[in-house]
Amino acid sequence: MFTRIVTSALFAGGAAGLAAGILQWQFVQPVLLHSELYEQGLLTHFGGTLNSTDVALDRLQPMRDALSIIFTMLLNTGYALILIALMSIRHQSGDELTPHKGIIWGIAGYVAVHLAPALSLPPEVPGVAAADVELRQIWWVCTVAATSIGLWLIAFSRNITRIIPAIILILLPHLIGAPEADVFTGPAPTEIGALFASRALGIGLASWAVLGYFSARFFISETKRAEAVASAK
Amino acid sequence: MAALVQIYSGSKSQILAVGLALFLGLSIVFVTGHVQSHTLHDAAHDVRHATGFPCH
User: Fold this and answer.
1) In a 3-state reduction of DSSP, which class is residue A173?
2) Are A133 and B54 within 8 A, CB to CB?
3) Which chain B residues contact residue A230 at CB under 8 A?
């Protein structure tokens, strides 16, 4: 079982990570590079200075871009290991898994890991004002855990009364609130920050849907292969 | 987690396999997304921003 999960996760994480890395390079990275010009003080937008929205960006940075794609593949492999391990639990309980159900698994993963934390801690462009990173990480981990358990209860509970604790779990991190900076000091224009957040969330949805599809597809084929080997013995 | 354990009907070795896979996956996500060592932070910087992890 472990080999089956790891093999499927490597293929799914690699394929989906490569797709996500390319999408991020095309759609998210230019906004990040633009923001860094403000973070580094090469551009400022306060005090009556008017900057063109069209600036020359250093788009092709081979080492930086390669590292980003490698780390996106690695991160997606981590996601795939978790996603496929959870899929295998449901598979064991008699739920039939299909690649299209995999897309729903992927979207649920996106809601738990990307969208829910973003509701109170939006994807940040470099240089924005933010609270202590450790506090934000603790809040992020708790939010992802609470949302995951909440979504699991909603998806798989036969008892309707479990929906109530599920909703409370999903809402609680946002009722408590994410750690916030004391003052606003971000140097980047709000237009860039908003575009970055929406691009990150949009590409995140596409990436997770692809990851869910590949995770289910590779897990199904690995399971069929293992069953064929077992029946041949 | 209690809900997971309750509904899981696999053998002990399957539970161990799923547990190990979850641990490995969480470890990779932690190292890629959260560890603040200087080298790792710089290498994963753009990915952390694009995927909504608190970066710095």
Assistant:
1) helix
2) yes
3) none
B15 contacts chain A (CB < 8 A) = no
In chain A, where the domains are located: 2-127+188-232, 131-180
**Which residues 6+ apart lie within 8 Å of A25 measured at CB?**
A65, A68, A69
The size of the A-B interface in CB pairs under 8 A is: 139
The question of ipTM being above 0.95 is answered as no
Q: If you measure CA to CA, which chain B residue comes closest to A178?
A: B54
Which residue ranges make up each domain of chain B?
A: 12-50
Task: Estimate to the nearest angstrom the gap between the alpha carbon of A96 and the chain centroid.
Answer: 25
- Digitized pLDDT (tens) for each residue of chain A, 233 residues in all: 889 999 999 999 999 999 999 999 999 999 999 999 988 888 887 767 777 788 888 888 999 999 999 999 999 999 999 999 999 999 888 889 999 999 999 999 999 999 999 999 999 988 788 888 999 999 999 999 999 999 999 999 888 888 999 999 999 999 999 999 888 888 888 899 999 999 999 999 999 999 999 999 999 999 999 888 888 87
What is the crossing angle of helices A2-27 and A29-39, to 10°? 60
Residue with tokens 């479990």: A162
Are A78 and B27 an interchain contact pair (Cβ–Cβ within 8 Å)?
yes
The phi and psi torsions of A177 (rounded to 5 degrees) equal 95, 145
The Cα A147–Cα A154 span in angstroms is 10
The answer to whether B44 contacts A71, with C-beta atoms less than 8 Å apart, is yes
Q: Do B28 and A88 touch (CB under 8 A)?
A: no
Q: How far apart are CA A5 and CA B24, in angstroms?
A: 11
CA–CA separation, A182 and A165 (whole Å): 32
Kindly determine whether residue A81 and residue B25, on different chains, have CB atoms separated by under 8 Å: yes
Among B6, B29, B37, the strongest candidate for a mutation testing the A interface, having the largest count of A CBs within 10 A, is B29
